[in-house]
Amino acid sequence: MDRLKKSPWMLHYDASSCNGCDIEVLACTMPRFDLERFGIINTGNPFHADILLITGGVNHQSAQVVKQIYSQMPNPKVVVAVGICACSGGIFKDCYNIYGGVDTVIPVDVYVPGCAARPQSIIDGVLQAVELLEKKKEEAHHE
Amino acid sequence: MYLIPALTLIPFIGAILIFLDSNSKRRGYVIYGTVALMMLCCFLLVGQWILQGAKPWHLYPQTGFIDLLMQVIEVFLMIFIVYKSFKHKKRWISLLAISQTVLTLWVEHSIPLVESTHTTVDSLALLMCILCSVVGGLIGVYSVGYMKSYHENHRGIIDRSNTFLALLFVFMAAMFGLVLSSNLIWMYFFWEVTSVISFLLIGYTQTDEAIDNSFKALWMNLLGGIGFAVAIWLCAMQNHSVQMQDIVSGGNTMIIGMLCLAGLTKSAQLPFSTWLFGAMVAPTPSSALLHSATMVKAGVYLLIRLAPALYGNLCGMVVAFIGGFTFITTSMMAIAQNDAKKVLAFSTISNLGLIVACAGIGVEQTVWAAIFLMIFHSVSKSMLFESVGATENSIGSRDIEHMHGLILRLPKLAYIMGIGIAGMYLAPFGMLISKWVALKAFVDSGNVLLVIFIAFGSASTMFYWTKWLGKLIAMHKPNTPDHDATRKDEYFSMGVLGVIMILLCLLFPLLAGFVVNPIVLSLFGATQDVLSMSELTTMVIMVCSVLLVPSMMFLITRMAPRDYVPTYMNGVNVGDNSHFIDSMGESKKLYLSNWYLRFEFGRRRLLRPSQIVAASVLIVTFAILLGGAIG
Amino acid sequence: MNRYISLILYLLLAPFIGAFLDGIDRKITARMQGRKGPSIWQPFYDLYKLFSKQMIAVNSVQLLLNCSYLIFLAIAGGMVFFGTDILMSLFILSTADMFLILAASSDSSPFSNIGASREMMQMMSYEPMTLLIAVGFYLATGSFRVDEIIAQNSAAFWMMPGLFVGYILIMAIKLRKSPFDLSTSHHAHQEVVKGITTEMSGPTLAIMEIGEYYEKMLLLAVVALFFIHGEPWSWIIGILACLAVYFIEILIDNISARVNWRKLLDICWLITLLCGGINVLILMLI
Fold first, then answer.
1. B578 in a domain, yes or no?
2. Beta bridge mates, B57
3. What Cα–Cα distance (Å) separates residue C82 from each residue in B545, C60, C135?
4. Residues of A whose CB is below 8 A from C34
5. Which of B288, B312, B356, C121 is deepest in the core (most CB within 10 A)?
6. Which of B421, B447, B549 is best to mutate for the C interface (most C CBs within 10 A)?
7. Taking the CA of residue B575 as centre, how many other CA atoms within 13 Å lie in the half-sphere pointing to its CB?
8. How high is the pLDDT of residue A143?
9. Which branch of life, at top level (chain A) (predicted)?
10. Is any Cβ of chain A less than 8 angstroms from the Cβ of C29?
11. Does residue B248 contact residue B612 with C-beta atoms inside 8 Å?
12. Is residue B581 in some structural domain?
């Protein structure tokens, strides 16, 4: 049963990104790359989403928001960190106001590096995340 | 035969006892006793009537003493109105009172009238009696507890609750008299009594607003009274008889037009609607009893009596137009109201408009629908008024916005309100079925304007009820729990009304077969099955499903395991669903409001134009009628 | 006997056909936008996924109200397919919609509350037209009953073209198509997040979607009702008309931008008055 991966809906959240990665994420949904051919919809609503796609490093203000949005997503769910800032904090890593990558707040499943990440690699990351959904579902069953 | 005088005397004697008794506890028992006796008497009357073959009774040909008594009271009422209008510097109102009283007295003394009966007991009159005694009685029970809470919450108002309660019962006595009279002069007497009582009850709080509104109600009702008096005069001149059935069979359009004017003012149709929403300043029992369940129904009752004579003539067309027009405009204006009682007032006017439109068309089907609408409206509207009043006593406000999440705060009241609202507009409850029949009848009678009125009117009706229901059902836990100040007798009254409402919906086919069809038969001499039995049973099944489906779903979904999370507020929910963190990093209260669309549907925008339209239609009609009568 | 078969077929197949049509819709929409688009079976994958998700909720009554919404839509549609009263069915349809509004209001959250208000506005906009359409059928064929409407000698469409135009308009509202997708949209991302469905997740959302499929089949059945009459071949015309109307809705969806509520109300009521009112008037006069 691998139908779960045929309909992953995603939620895109900008933690503190410079908008570079955001533009690339939006580019994925445009006709040239067309994320929807994989059944992926950018829902913008944690209650509907399976994939949380975060751009930018997490700072003091966005940490609570990221946690809350994550808590509002129903299981199984995966987190994709897009761009080097989301992966590790990037050039802002040592800034006084930055916690670091997304994994300092919530568990991250897929890291998509790049500054900004290219649409091809974003799609690749999302599809890898999709594979994880099924596994997570099974894990939840075993528990 | 002794039951008819008993029916009017019981509430009247009860009223005197209530007025004299200053002990509030004993007064409560007197009220319960009176209500029980009144209901018993009413049902005995109905039982006796059915046992004797359910034929119309025509009673009391000789009533010299009572006639004299009525004349004395009429003069007394006139003097009272004159006194009041001079006291409050509204002197011109006294002219209305004097002219009509003098006119009727002159008619009674100078024009010889054919000897005839004064009272008719038939199915329509008895239905009105049952409505008045059951709904009125329950409101009487409710008002015992309500008035106590009311004066606890409104310290500034002088406690005259014995006067208030006594007036309610005098009103019931007058209402029984009104519906049982077949003689116009008697009917006119009771008509005036109800107008004056309405005036007194609206002015109960004695604030400036209350006094202004009470005089507004008074002059509009007196204007209708003048129509009534003129109708009596014309009728007496023409055929030396003032019997209702003679007018219906005679078909003189001028007389019927005048009586229609009286009916329209009493049932607060445009352009006379303003008095009814002014009347909402009065304590809730009077709004429930007079201004939605019974007194305004007197106007409708008169029009239904006249309905066979309205078919296909100018009067009927105008009455139907005014009714339909009132239905659509007031249901739009109701959208812009956030005061629950105002919404109920507008909805009352608009439903009355629908009934008036049905009566104006004047065929079997529409009258069938009109009677149904009347029954359902009385029950569910009185229930709604009572629950709004009780809510106001508990949470200190009757603003719909403040009823946010009432289902968790005051669950019992919220359920009662919910049943009332569902009964008012949801398929397949009674009101909607009647609306459906009305729509069909309007189509059959080829009146495209009314069809469009009803189509747009039901859309706006749906809007204002749904948003109210949405407010009630919001699952939002308050920080401070509300204290339910509703007393036992109030709950008793509301609970019984709720049960009656549901039973009426379930027993719809029986109601149609045994109550409404005979009434239509007695009015028209013929009846047809407006809805076939299979359609009626389908409806009952639908009602059951509306009641069953959610409760079944409740049982099924209760089992489903669920993890609760906070609602979505862009991730800045503080966690209790009522606060969020703003851009300054501080916690802020969330406030959710309904749409009121005041600029589009507000009273300020719609009331004046619609009054002008309705008034000009009325004026033109009377000009034509007068021209016809003279020429 | 036939009516029982059609009722059972409706109750069993409507979600599947509805979902299939939805898949086609998404494919055509994607092609109109120059994209490849998802598989035609995408709605089935979506439903499967939604049912396998964790059940999270913001309150205890939303699921119950959503289930009631589904059941009432099934009842409303069932009434049409069973051949009973169309006016009653349309009334039940609005009752069903009211349950959805209540489900959204019960969240007491900002986005679904706005969605609920807008849904009410949509209801107020299309309600007059639905009533007039039922009245139109009654005038054109002499009956509110579906089985009598389809037994006529000629198609009702010829008597009520104005109402048909109006019906296409309100169908756009009911199918949540742009420019009237105010309360919630099938397209990703909008200004009120997901409007009324914001707080519905997993199975709760799936139930609502299935309800929408029932509704879609009911709406298309009414389109067919305009064309079907006594002749057997008229059924083919009816089905073709459904597909054509469905395509027109998709086209409208893709070529128009969302309007605000005031425009929605103005457009709908004006067209109702012009197309519907005049059509009904003419039917009454002839």
1. no
2. B121
3. 17, 34, 19
4. 31
5. B288
6. B549
7. 4
8. 60
9. Bacteria
10. no
11. no
12. no
Neighbours of chain A (3+ CB pairs under 8 A): B, C
Report yes or no for ipTM above 0.90: yes
Q: B577 lies in a domain? A: no
Burial of C276 by CB count in 10 Å (0-12 exposed, 13-18 middle, 19+ buried)? buried
Place of tokens 């109750």: C11
Higher pLDDT, B143 or B239: B143
> Residue-wise over C107-120: b if at least 16 C-beta within 10 A, else e?
bbbbbbbbbbbbbb
The three-state secondary structure class of B496 is helix
Residue in chain B lying closest to A69 (CA) = B571
Task: Look up residue B307 and give its two tokens.
Answer: 């309905």
- In chain B, the residue whose alpha carbon lies closest to the alpha carbon of C133 is B455
Which helix (H) or strand (E) segment holds residue B91: the answer is none
Long-range (24+ apart) CB contacts under 8 A made by A66-70 are A66/A13, A66/A15, A66/A102, A66/A105, A66/A106, A66/B571, A67/A105, A67/A106, A68/B566, A68/B571, A68/B572, A68/B573, A69/A11, A69/A13, A69/B571, A70/A46, A70/A106
Distance of CA B23 to the CA centre of its chain: 31
Residue C157: phi, psi to the nearest 5?
-55, -40
Cα–Cα separations (whole angstroms), residue C122 to C118, C128, C265? 6, 11, 8
Specify the CATH number for the domain of residue A128: 3.40.50.12280
Pair of tokens at residue B252: 């003189």
Residues of A in contact with C66 (CB under 8 A): none
pLDDT digits (tens, 9 = 90+) for B362-400: 888 888 888 888 998 999 899 999 999 999 888 888 899
Taking the CA of residue C206 and the nearest CA in chain A, the distance in Å comes to 10
What are the beta bridge partners of residue B573?
A: B580
SS3 B386: helix
Distance from CA of A18 to the nearest CA of C (A): 21
Could you give the CA distance from residue A137 to residue A76 in angstroms, rounded to a whole number?
6
pTM of the predicted structure, to 2 decimals: 0.92
Q: How many domains does chain B have?
A: 1
Element (H, E) at B345: helix B340-361
Token readout for B533 is: 């039995």
Taking the Cβ of residue A46 and every Cβ of chain B, the question of whether any pair is shorter than 8 Å is answered with: yes
Residue span of the structural domain in which A15 resides: 3-142
N residues, chain B: 631
pLDDT value, residue C219: 93
In chain B, the residue whose alpha carbon lies closest to the alpha carbon of A73 is B565
**Which tens digits make up the pLDDT trace of B49-65?**
888 877 888 877 777 78
Q: Which residue is it, tokens 């410079």?
A: A18
Q: Enter the tokens of residue C167.
A: 């019906």
| Contact in structure between B338 and B286 (CB atoms under 8 Å) | no
Alpha-helical segments (H) within chain A: 20-29, 60-71, 84-88, 119-142
Residues of B in contact with A68 (CB under 8 A): 566, 571-573
Q: Give me the residues of chain C with pLDDT under 50, please.
A: none
Whether the Cβ atoms of residue A74 and residue C55 lie closer than 8 Å to each other: yes
Query: Could you say which DSSP state residue A118 is in?
Result: P
> d(Cα B388, Cα A100) in Å, to the nearest integer?
56
Asked if A47 reaches chain B (Cβ–Cβ under 8 Å), the answer is: yes
Q: Cα-Cα-Cα-Cα dihedral of C261, C262, C267, C270, to 10°? A: 130
C58 touches chain B (CB under 8 A): yes
Q: Give the count of domains, chain A.
A: 1
Q: Which H or E run contains B532?
A: none
- C42 is written with which tokens? 């995408």
Task: Give B436's contacts in chain C (Cβ within 8 Å).
Answer: 87-88, 91
Instruction: Show the domain range for B453.
Output: 3-559+605-630
